[in-house]
Amino acid sequence: MDALIAEFPRFVSGFLGTLRLCLFAAIGALLLGTLLAAFRVSPVPPLRWVGTSWVTVFRNSPLVVVLFLFAFGLPQVGVVFPTFGGNAFFWPGVAGLSAYTAAFVCEAVRSGINSVPAGQAEAARAVGLTFQQTLGAVVLPQALRTVVPPLGSVMIAMIKNSAIVGAFGVTGELFSVDGALTAAGYSALSSLGGVAIAYLAITIPAGIGLGWLERKIEVKR
Amino acid sequence: MSSVLYDAPGPRARRNTLIGTVIAVALLLVLVVFAFIQLGENGQLDGEKWGPAFNPANQYFVATWSALSTGLINTVVAAALTLVLALAIGTALAVARISSSRAYRWLVVGIIELFRGLPVVITIFLAARVLPEFGISLPPLWYLVIGLTAYNCVIIAEIVRAGVNALPRGQSEAAYAVGLTRFQVLRIILLPQAFRIMLPALISQLVVIVKDTSLGFVIFGFSEFVRTANTVIQFFGGQEGIALPLQMYIAVALVFILINYGLSKLAEYVQRRTARAGRAARKKDAPPPKELTPVGTAGAIV
After folding, report:
1. B139 with B32, same domain?
2. Domain A2-176+184-217: which topology?
3. B51 in a domain, yes or no?
4. Nearest beta carbon to residue B245 from set A57, A73, A150
């Protein structure tokens, strides 16, 4: 643990780097995942196919392979990501992590919508609410409450998965702190142990916060 | 399509759906055509690029796949070893958590929370780099297995605990009443029934394990499936001057998707069977606990 104390600034910057990576990926994954969920519950069959295939492909392939495809496969077809502060792997990493996590977000949102009993929407329609009103005033507020716990777990899993992006060489991210410290001559136990503690400093409070939120918004049915 | 969102469609809704379908199909076709043009312009449709992985008539096909299958075997071996070890240790942890006294239980909960919060790639890296520092040097396969087990055993411990908690109280009460000890109750009455309920969740966890074996790429000297693919790509890039990362990673992804899709279908099938048979006792009217929700929904996470 001596590295954690001696090289604290490096850990702080790695910590912030991880948060930055996760922030971008979370925005991408939430937007894309919600869109895919809308596709999956849409009455238009081809949109449902798109949603279903996306989920099947990305849920069943390892994140490593997805990242390899984004980082080394896509440039082959002329899709070149801009660099981020001189780092070529940042945007492919964000894009790959977003595409992968979106599949899980989609499933969480979809199961949330499906968990609202059909009688709720039927009753809303029976009293004459329009589709928008049914969705906005009856279905979504209830769906949101069931969606939060699984969505939170997906986000925590995404934070942990960001370490894989780090292993690819997104410099300035927590995982890469280990490489820098090893090069500086620290033992693996002290540098990796420090990195592990830094990850726990994100995931454990996030888990506790999620549990609290879960209890607070729980729907009694 | 029955959903909470829509009524059974009337004539107008059906017409709108049809129009939407036509537009969506047209857009998708445009997208596919554009993708092919993009592929063609960058010379990615050449037979020499797809051949080594997809065309059995290609001169490299046999060599490519014999290399890849060696990697795939390593991946499967690592996944199988991890499953067995994680199941054994996970069950032990769950038993310790259920049956130990309160003071001691905190220790088990601490271990579970600790490893649950760590990224798998970190546990693998810890195993691969820290163990040798303590003079424990193992074949690279075992670093991967140890790293994966450290993470997955605590997940399995939670699944086992959820399975045991899902059983009706009457099961353990009856067992205590006939004079079984606490350990006997767990071993003879609770765990066998819990395993039945848990089976689908365990199979979905196997999907996670299979995917995570690919993280072995951080360990030097262990040629699992993905690292083998990289070696193949390097070979073609260097020796033959053919860059085929796109094609090779697509092949790798397809193999993973095939295996994992099969496993998740198996999990759904087992889920349906155990639900229908209804032999595995579960609390009446209680929904299955979160950890045991079926694979089709949010299921096993990442």
Report:
1. no
2. MetI-like fold (1.10.3720)
3. no
4. A73
| Residue B162 bridge partners (DSSP) | none
Domain identity same for B120 and B12: no
Subunit contact B118:A76, Cβ cutoff 8 A: no
* Length of chain B in terms of residues written: 302
Residues of A in contact with B3 (CB under 8 A): 41, 113-114, 118
Q: For chain B, say whether A128 makes contact (Cβ under 8 Å).
A: no
Who wins on pLDDT, B262 or A74?
A: B262
| pLDDT tens, position by position, B104-159 | 888 888 888 889 889 998 899 888 888 888 888 888 889 999 999 999 999 999 99
Cα radius of gyration rounded to whole Å, chain A: 21
Decide if B215 and A45 are in contact by the 8 Å CB cutoff: no
Q: Are residues B18 and B101 in the same domain?
A: no
Give the pair of three-digit tokens for residue B96: 């310790």
Single-letter residue type at A149: P
CA angle in degrees (0–180, nearest 5) for A110-A111-A117: 110
Number of domains in chain B: 2
CATH value at residue B127: 1.10.3720.10
- Which residues in chain A are contacts of B121 at CB distance < 8 A? 163-164, 167, 175
Query: Does B299 reside within a domain?
Result: no
Residues B281, B208 share a domain: yes
Residue type, B147: G
**Could you tell me where the beta strands, DSSP code E, fall in A68-188?**
none
Q: Are B146 and B216 in a shared domain? A: yes
Count the neighbouring beta carbons within 10 Å of the beta carbon of residue A136: 12
pLDDT tens-digit readout, A122-169: 898 889 888 888 888 888 888 888 888 889 999 999 999 998 888 877
B257, A56 in Cβ contact below 8 A? yes
Q: Is the ipTM of this complex over 0.95?
A: no
A residues 93-122 lying closer than 8 A (beta carbon) to B: 101, 104, 107-108, 111, 113-114, 116-118, 120-122
Determine the distance in angstroms separating the CA of B20 from the nearest CA of chain A, rounded to an integer.
6
Task: Identify the domain containing residue B86 by its residue range.
Answer: 69-292
Per CB-CB distance under 8 Å, the chain A contacts of B297 are 107, 111
The ranges assigned to domains in chain A are 2-176+184-217
Same domain, B125 and B161: yes
User: What does the angle CA B286 – CA B206 – CA A48 come to, to the nearest 5 degrees?
Assistant: 70
Asked if residue B123 and residue B20 are part of one domain, the reply reads no
Contacts of A2 in chain B (CB under 8 A): none
Residues B118 and B29 in one domain: no
Token duo for residue A53:
């295939």
B170 in any annotated domain:
yes
The answer to whether the pTM exceeds 0.90 is no
